[in-house]
Structure formats: structure tokens, C-alpha cells
Write a structure and sequence with these properties.
mainly alpha, 3-stranded antiparallel sheet, two-stranded antiparallel sheet, 54% helix, elongated
């Protein structure tokens, strides 16, 4: 799927765009809204669509960049909307999002499932099948089998599945936030197949890095993958700039700072267990390597 985004209009943050977006959805128009320092930017796929929508908004005679004075224009508000219609509209919006970002959403859902397993599967009857090494709970402690045992049993999935295990609410919320931010950019730009392959390869790479660094331990989470996606976007965009792969410098700086903070041990003070720093760094390196390869083969170029 090739998507070419075009800016339509900047709206004040106080405008409720839901009815307008619902109308675009019903007409099959692919759209996105980005919140920036100066307001809400509406984007649509296709130059002709963007120009038509610009003309229609101009005909409304309203400066959308200013806060609404009293009532919003009819196209931008629907105060009489019933609860049933509201739920239906939200369902359609969710359906639209899931159609364009299936791999990103599935990855987050599986991460949530992994977090629930860690929370409720106290005896590790299910969790034990997803860890890097086979593990079982014996009383108050965990008993690990050698990694080679799992390999001999053809448990090849263990190289990857720890990425779905999350230890606590903050862990899954933090990772889900950045998987959504980075994953959908890559999925729109390069397609669902490429994102799925990237998650698989970098997930394996970050897990192996963590195991080699720390040895036998219980670890997991999508943080290694999200650092890989960060590294890919960061480096690929330096060779082949594109609006979808361009990350604000503040995000790159924050994520690198967070990784260094984790390596310092400061975060370990506030959480149970330890941060999987090797997975973060290994994932970042995997993403950078993938970007270097992708830029050479002109990945995503028409």
C-alpha cells in the first residue's frame, strides 16, 4: 500500500474533529491527525482529495486556527448524537485504524496478553512456554532449564516470544506507546509485511543480546523491539528522508537518554527486577543495521 499524505488544515486544539473524521471514514478517505505545538494538523491521502477538502473548509468562512467562539460549524460538531451512534462511529474509526495498522495493533495486543499472563499465571504453566529458557515455579523460586534443552526440544519460538512478556502496568504502557508511535510509521511507509519481519528479526536479536549479556534470568518485553524500530527510523531517515520516517529530535534524545539512564541502574531502584539493558542496546543496533541495509537496497522507493 502506497500512501502519500497531504496537509489539509490546521485546527485549534479545542476543535472536536470526530464528526469530520467520521464523515471522511464513511467516504473511504484515508486520514490522520497529528497534534503539534501549533494545533491539530489534518492529513489525507491524495492531493486531489486534499485540495477538495481545503476548498470545502474555506467555504465555511471560519478561521479554524482560532478557538471556537460559541458553537462549532455543523460539519465539526454533532451535539445531538445518540450514544448508539457514538459507539458505532467509534467502532468504525477503530475498524479503519486496524485495517491500516494490523501488525502494530496485533503486536500491542499480544504484549497486553503477555502482561496478563505474568499477572495471573502464578505457577508459570503458560508463561513457561514463552520464556527464553524453559522455566517452572517451585515453591517460592523459579527453576530454569538450560537453553540447550529447549533447543533440543525444538522450542525455536523461544528465541522470539519473550518480547510479549511484560512485568507490570508501566512496562506494558510504556512499550505499547512507543510501538504504536514507531510501528505505524513503518507500517504505512513500508507495509505490514516489512514491519512483521522487522519485529521478528529484531525481537530475536534483542533477546539473544540479553541472554548473552545476563545469562540465565527471567526477562521480556517489547522494549528491545521498540529501540530497534527507533534505530531504523533514525538512521534510515538520514539516508532517505521522508515525512513518515522523520522523528522529532526530542523523541530521539529522550529515548537515548532513557536507555543510558537504564544502564546507570537508576531505574532499577523504582521497579521490581532489573532493566533489560542489553536487549535495549542490542535492539537499537539491530534496527540501525536493518536501516543501513534498507537504505542500500532503496527500501520503500517507488
Amino acid at each position: 500500500m502506497s500512501v502519500r499524505w497531504h496537509k489539509v488544515e490546521l485546527f485549534n486544539v479545542h476543535y472536536n474533529l470526530s464528526p469530520l473524521l467520521s464523515q471522511l471514514q464513511s467516504e473511504g478517505v484515508l486520514y490522520r491527525v497529528t497534534e503539534e505545538s501549533d494545533g491539530q494538523w489534518l492529513w489525507v491521502d491524495g492531493g486531489d482529495t486534499a485540495e477538495s477538502l481545503k476548498r470545502w473548509l474555506a467555504d465555511q468562512g471560519v478561521d479554524f486556527r482560532q478557538p471556537p467562539q460559541h458553537e462549532q460549524p455543523q460539519a465539526l460538531t454533532n451535539p445531538g448524537e445518540s450514544s448508539v451512534n457514538f459507539v458505532l462511529r467509534k467502532y468504525l474509526e477503530l475498524k479503519n485504524v486496524s485495517r491500516h495498522f494490523p501488525v502494530t495493533i496485533l503486536t500491542i495486543i499480544l504484549g497486553v496478553v503477555g502482561a496478563l499472563l505474568i499477572k495471573f499465571d502464578q505457577h508459570y504453566q503458560w508463561v513457561g512456554w514463552l520464556t527464553f529458557q524453559p522455566v517452572a515455579r517451585l515453591g517460592d523460586r523459579l527453576a530454569f532449564a538450560e537453553f540447550s534443552y529447549g533447543w533440543e526440544q525444538l522450542h525455536y519460538w523461544r528465541l522470539f516470544t519473550p518480547v510479549f512478556l511484560h512485568f507490570g502496568l508501566f512496562h506494558i504502557l510504556f512499550n505499547a506507546l512507543w510501538i504504536w508511535e514507531f510501528g505505524r510509521r513503518i507500517e504505512l511507509r513500508f507495509g505490514s509485511g516489512f514491519l512483521a519481519l522487522s519485529i521478528l528479526l529484531t525481537g530475536v536479536g534483542s533477546n539473544v543480546a540479553q541472554y548473552v549479556s545476563q545469562g540465565t534470568s527471567l526477562f521480556g518485553g517489547l522494549s528491545g523491539v521498540l529501540y530497534a524500530l527507533l534505530g531504523f527510523l533514525w538512521i534510515y531517515n538520514r539516508f532517505r528522508p521522508h515525512r513518515l520516517t522523520t522523528l522529532p529530535p526530542g523523541i530521539i534524545g529522550f529515548m537515548l537518554f532513557w536507555m543510558v539512564l537504564g544502564m546507570s541502574g537508576a531505574i532499577d531502584v523504582f521497579i521490581d527486577g532489573r532493566v533489560a539493558n542489553a536487549a535495549h542496546f542490542g535492539g537499537l543496533l539491530c534496527g540501525i543495521l536493518l536501516a543501513l541495509i534498507g537504505s542500500k537496497v532503496k527500501l520503500g522507493q517507488p
